[in-house]
Amino acid sequence: MPYVQGQTIHDADSHIMELPGTIHRYLDPKVRDAFVEKTGRKDVLPEWFANAAARQEDPEFRAGAEANILLRKNYEALGAFRAEDRPKTLDYLGFASQLVFTTASLSNFGLEEMGEVDLAIEAARAHNRMMTDFCAVDRRLLATGYVPLTDRARAPQIAREAIELGAKALVVASRPPPGFSPSHVELDPLWAVIEEAGLPVLFHVGGEEKMRRDYLENGLPHVKDFHGGDENFTSLTFMAIPLSVWQTLSALVIDGVFDRFPKLKWGAIELGASWLPSLMRFLDSGVAAFGREERLQKLSARPSEILRRQLRVTPYPHEDVRWIIENAGEEMVLFSSDYPHIEGGRNPLKRFNESLEGVGDRARRAFYRDNFIDLMGRGLDPALHDLPNLAAA
């Protein structure tokens, strides 16, 4: 029996858990050595990962997949890295569709920050081939492509290639490209390509600027992340997650990008949402304070209204979704599971339903279904808007 029953739910955030070396299969052979040299990512499968892969072949372990569909996380989860298993994962979860993101490539391996423009572009192309190949097994799996903004001239072509491969959404970093704003007018051809395709532009955690390490030097014992390591967030570094997307969205609205492409939808995925009402208010306040600027006088509406028209975000399951809806609008928030990452929890429906207590049926339907359909545009086949048994009813 699937986890979701009796309603259509679209999942705005899930991941593959690439085994080490996976990206190398999709890199142009001419750049593989340079990629290893710059990133340190070798085409090898260490023993721990080999054991994880072998476990997914064990019949006894696989027999417990359905019963443990939300209990097993990361590499133990069904369909985490084996594409052929992911359709069964969706059957067990009961989601009507699922946006699928990388895990290993979320920051494009830091190549853009290194100034390795050509290699960053090749890594993005490899990522796009990898993601669309993985998701090709089932139309319910919606592959995300990645477009580096570092080379403004080549960005539209990378987007076209990803779309032709089958990407259903295009991801860009929420941090600015080195040396210029994401609202630069020379990126307009990129936004035009994506708008014409009817697909959304997405930001995802991993593409933001991290908290300066100065803040971690407090004279106290070092704090590990919740995995017991140093790669993920702590309660302090978590505070910096929305800062980049806050600034990027502000630039895109104030500099008129949202207005120049009014049919283009944007999504902020796994970046939380409690910051959203404040951003909307702060942008409106900024327009009131600096209203004589010519660019502000050209805006089609108040910034909060522009964001409400074109932006959709995914709250974390520990956030107060009802409060966000009441202060931002019911059309702006989306359900996400973060499958198979630990951060998504073992019962996301329970947590979100609790945070939606007191919210009306229309807003609930918007959260679980309607806002996702609106965000995805032509990236979501109309036949997938509802689960077949509910559509028939």
- The secondary structure category is alpha/beta
The tally of helices reads 17
The CATH top-level class label: Alpha Beta
Helical proportion, percent range: 25-40%
**Uncertain regions spanning at least 5 consecutive residues:** none
Measured on Cα atoms, how large is the radius of gyration?
21 Å
- Can you identify the CATH superfamily? Metal-dependent hydrolases
Instruction: State the order of secondary-structure elements, H for helix, E for strand.
Output: EHHHHEHHEHEHEHHEHHHEHHHH
Please provide the count of β strands.
7
Strand order of the largest sheet: 1-2-3-4-5-6-7
Mean pLDDT: 95
Largest sheet properties: 7 strands, parallel
- First-to-last CA distance: 19 Å
Strand content: 5-15%
Overall, the morphology is: globular
Number of domains: 1
Task: Kindly describe this structure.
The protein is of the alpha/beta class. 39% of the residues lie in helices and 8% in strands. It has a 7-stranded parallel sheet, sandwiched between helices. Strand 3 (141-146), helix 7 and strand 4 (169-171) form a beta-alpha-beta unit. The longest helix has 19 residues, at 117-135.
